[in-house]
UniProtKB/TrEMBL annotation, chain A:
Its main location: nucleus. GO terms for cellular component: chromosome, telomeric region; DNA replication factor A complex; site of double-strand break. Transmembrane segments: none annotated. It comes from the Eukaryota. CDD domains: RPA2_DBD_D. Belongs to the replication factor A protein 2 family. This is Uncharacterized protein. Residues 180-191 have a biased composition (Polar residues). Residues 179-201 are annotated as: Disordered. It is found in: Nucleus. GO terms for biological process: DNA replication; double-strand break repair via homologous recombination; nucleotide-excision repair. It comes from Neoarthrinium moseri.
From TrEMBL, chain B:
One of its GO terms (cellular component) is site of double-strand break. Pfam families: Rep_fac-A_3 (PF08661). Belongs to the replication factor A protein 3 family. This is Replication factor A protein 3. It comes from Neoarthrinium moseri. One of its GO terms (biological process) is mismatch repair. The keyword tRNA processing does not apply. It is found in: Nucleus. GO terms for molecular function: damaged DNA binding; single-stranded DNA binding. Gene3D superfamilies: Nucleic acid-binding proteins. Keywords: Nucleus. Transmembrane segments: none annotated.
Amino acid sequence: MTADYGGGGGYSRTSYGAAGGDDAGGFVYGGSQGGSQGGGRASGEESLRPVTIKQIIDAEQAYQDAPFRIDGVEVSQVTFVGMVRNISPQTTNITFKLDDGTGLIEVKQWLDADKDDSGKPQFQLDQYVRVWGRLKSFNNKRHVGAHVIKPVADFNEVNYHLLEATYVHLFFTKGAKTDANGQSNGNTGDNDSMFVDDGNSGNGANDDKVRHCSMNAKKFFNWLQHAEGGNEGIHLNLIAQGAKLSVNDAMAAAEELFGTGVVYTTIDDETFAILDY
Amino acid sequence: MEPISTPRISGQIIGSFVGRNVMIVGKVLQLRGEEAVIEANGHVTANLNREAHLTPGNGVQIIGKVNNDLSIKVMSSVDLGNNVDFTVSQAVVDATHQYPDLFVYAN
């Protein structure tokens, strides 16, 4: 299977998938991807996203059991911090209520009857903890199924986390900072962006054209830019496959890029090439 | 799952939050019985509850209601030790109000 997170203690997707049932079935989102069973899941969906609790509560779900979306991006694995407000031991799990100042959410840590859990850390009320887990919905009630809960040893991690969640939100809504040296300036100014917009990106002028586009539009553009036969144009489905986007996302990206005049349609309405001038 | 926020604020913007529950991270300047003065980008007077155990010079996180005189009626307080980077706390306060979608439910 896909997921063996190097640093995170090696959760394999099979074990959690079987328990949650949300991996069942090969329903292809968007429909028209030529027979790629289960290929409808966007590539970013299994990546770990730092979030605030308000973002979890506000995460959209198109219908029951649909994937969760934050900022229009599919998300299931999240990490966040919060203060323990309530601990309620159940027969099969321990349910925590966590509060990070932005909202309150329930976190369930499942108990393994075969394992001795006495070695697990015990938590106190009002203590800050960090959770790594998966978004779940049960009886229309949202909670996080925790893989790991650890105490926050250094309070600065709380502030760091909230800024990181902001950074990732801006990354998905405003796009990555092209000068990818990863530095965020403490965001103390009135500047609308957290990132220094100094333009010395060292990438070509082409990347400049998509600097203010969405992540998906950038993926679309970058793949198309390096694809062969780009002059005659490439069909939307091929671009979606190559750029690892769902067809719907690729369509939205194409519309966005078309609207700003970065790409144009060639032999039909679904075949795109980069507009070079 | 409850949409209730205690937005992180500083002494500078406390005037806009009268009557609301807020969260403040700052440094304990003075302790006088049931009252503490906290530096959080401006001085804030906190009316403590019995459970509060603050240490002058240490960082503290308080959650409480902003009174009409801009003091805070503390509901909970956590001693944060002496290793708190207050510039980062202030950055979080700034981000909170610049991007309320991520941080604050209007209530």
